[in-house]
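job 3f2a | input accepted
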Amino acid sequence: MEIRKILAFLKKDFLTEISYKLSFLLNIFSVSVSILTFFFIDKLFGHKMAPYLAPYGINYFAYVLIAIAFFSYVGTGLGSLSSRIRQEQMMGTLEAILVSPTKIPTFIIALSLWNFIIASIDVCVYLILGALVFKVNFGNINILSSLVILILTVLTFNSLGVIAASFIIVFKRGNPVTWLMDSAFGLLGGVYFPVAVLPNWLRSISSLLPVTYAIKAMQLAVYKGYSLSQLSSDLIILLFFTFMLLPLSMLSFKFALRKAKRQGNLLYY
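job 3f2a | predicted structure (269 res):
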């Protein structure tokens, strides 16, 4: 029954998406422009990054290609559920969904899954263009390590996204915290440049962010073929964030639902 509910949401989102074909094409165009932008940045300034990229054995373009592709999952985890809940509130369908006999994990997966599928399509575009057009070599990739890192990353940042969605349910307002986290993770987490470029005081802040360890581990898994044992220190930290944030997110979401139902304002945006 729960699987059928998830598939029903997925079908609805798919039908909605294909009704806006231009939006899908514009998304692919945006990914392509992003790749080209960083390709030319690499041509102009990439040589200055070379000393900081020695641990990965790659140039700046190869580094940022994987980082921004992988960061798609981070942004989706942080913001997809919040945006979908705002959408359901505005359409007046949120209350009907939440008062139905649907388990909270099912509800969260159902509302988030389509956005993760779109993020996966974006990642495929990044990787295909990188390999075929810009000749980035992915021959050393450790697929098992990459999958484990991806799963832990999605769980961690989706948990943060659930906490952000709890804010939406209670306060009926957009959540600036999500935007701030997304910006901070992009700037300090090693997405657009290696963390080693940062001054010491910013590196100290960066060491507190889960995205820092996710990006570093993914780079090493893709370009150096590192095994799970070689990435154990980064994976342990990601596991810590996952086990800490996952139950916290469920508790916050349940609290938000109870509060909204008690006040009788699930229907209103």
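job 3f2a | DSSP finds ten helices and no strands in the chain.
job 3f2a | closed
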